[in-house]
Amino acid sequence: MDTIAADLPKIISIFGLAWLYFWPSIPAGLALGLSPLVVIITTSLSYASGAAVITLLGGPLRAWLMKRIGQRATVNPGSRLYRIWERFGMIGLGLAAPMTVGAQIGAAIGMALNAPPRRLFLWMALGGLLWSITLTVLVSLGVLGVQQAVGQ
């Protein structure tokens, strides 16, 4: 328990960084000396909380905006974003958002395209967890490789 208390400022910093800018938070957490498991848990929870805020507030906000401005706020069917959505849907958005637009913008895009909030949140959270595990493993292996190369 003393270790968690000592690492709490680092964990809070990484949580805040991951909430705003996901992928750099992983090497930052490892550079601060946090264990890979703590980095995975912290960045995944942070990313999921960013998606949750938008999916919880997004439905009522979108309904209010649609009443206010009507159908003028729809997505252009010929746009690149719409074509990507049509091809890959929520799963593609959930997997791509952590490394591209982030949780909040990704969730907002999904909400704008009428994705069901619960399913959207699920795919966004799973995408964040998958990328968190993948990047943490890759960065950890890279650091170990560099340490081994320098040590020899």
Q: Could you characterize the architecture of this molecule?
A:
The chain is an all-alpha fold and 152 residues long. It is built from six helices and no strands. Helix 1 runs parallel beside helix 3.
How would you sum up this structure in a few lines?
The chain is an all-alpha fold and 152 residues long. It contains six helices and no strands. It has one domain (2-146).
Q: Total strand count, please?
A: 0
Q: What is the count of DSSP helices, taking H or I runs of 4+ residues? A: 6
Distance between the termini: 36 Å
Order of helices and strands: HHHHHH
What is the structural class? Answer: mainly alpha
Topology:
Elements: H1 2-20, H2 22-31, H3 36-69, H4 80-96, H5 103-112, H6 117-151
Helix pairs in contact: 1-2, 1-3, 2-3, 2-6, 3-5, 3-6, 4-6, 5-6
Brief descriptors of the model:
mainly alpha
